[in-house]
Amino acid sequence: MIRLNVFVRVDAEHRAEVLKIAEELVAASLKDDGCIAYDLFASATRPDVLMICETWRDVESLDEHSASAHFTRLVPQIEKLAQMKLERFEF
Question: How many CA atoms lie within 13 A of 54 on its CB side?
Fold first, then answer.
């Protein structure tokens, strides 16, 4: 399995928009084959930080997700409004 932690740092002026886009990304990604979990969290102590936690069955599932229409449309929208940092773990 593959786990991705995606940290999203967003200014207050763009937070609501990024949150809306991220929620759409989560809803669509949960339907992807091989998606075990796809969650969105807001930091309780830092209002400028969101985190998307993804768990994938295998690299093929993650690759398909990364090439999907919803991913290639929504992630660039988030990247225009926020900074993203990715951590990847395989287990």
Answer: 30
Low-confidence ranges of the chain (pLDDT < 50): none
Distance between CA atoms of residues 91 and 69, nearest Å: 27
Q: Which CATH class is domain 2-90?
A: alpha beta
* Angle separating helix axes 69-81 and 12-29, nearest 10 degrees: 170
Report domain extents, the chain: 2-90
> What pTM was estimated for this model as a whole?
0.95
Here the tokens at position 33 are 């084959």
Total residue length of the chain: 91
